[in-house]
């Protein structure tokens, strides 16, 4: 028991030294919003726990979830510059893919694997810490634009949300024009 606790404490310290950057995201309304960051502790039944900010886990593969809200956890969250520490108890037999496994599954060329990684439209920090359920991925594509190259992991439901958002923007644009012309 002491050894597991010691290893877990060392993991927390190592992760905290690597993940101490807060991010800001500019919104279209020119307001500055702090991005809510959650540090996940993935608690597997048959292996050591893993800490990551980049967890996309199928809810049906989660046995339980606890948000750590005691004063010690809040202090650790402040050190890590995250809003919340959440423990996900993963069901036995669940397999989560790492970034390299995603690359291999979707045949991403080796020269593209060092490019920035986007989950839908968000560039993720520390993509090497990604843990994702296979069934949460819709597609993985390589995007080569004039000055911008990246790998996009498209999550299930993303395209439908994007279409709905575009439809709402068109509706809002029509409402701003003052209505139909007479």
What is the typical, i.e. mean, pLDDT? 79
Largest sheet: 4 strands, mixed
Task: Please state the overall shape, judged from the principal axes of the Cα atoms.
Answer: globular
Order of helices and strands, N to C? HEEEEEEHEHEEEEEH
Number of helical segments? 4
Measured distance between first and last alpha carbons? 78 Å
Radius of gyration: 20 Å
Q: How many domain modules?
A: 2
Helix content: 25-40%
How many strands in all?
A: 12
User: What order do the strands of the largest sheet run in, or round the barrel if closed?
Assistant: 4-3-7-6
Q: How much of the polypeptide forms β-strand, as a percent range?
A: 25-35%
Description of the molecule:
The protein is of the alpha/beta class and 182 residues long. The protein folds into two domains: 95 residues, no CATH class; 75 residues, no CATH class. The chain is 29% helix and 29% strand. It has four helices and twelve strands; from the N terminus they run H-E-E-E-E-E-E-H-E-H-E-E-E-E-E-H. Strands 4-3-7-6 form a four-stranded mixed sheet. Strands 9-8-12-11 form a four-stranded mixed sheet, with no helix packed on it. The longest helix has 19 residues. About 16% of the residues have low confidence.
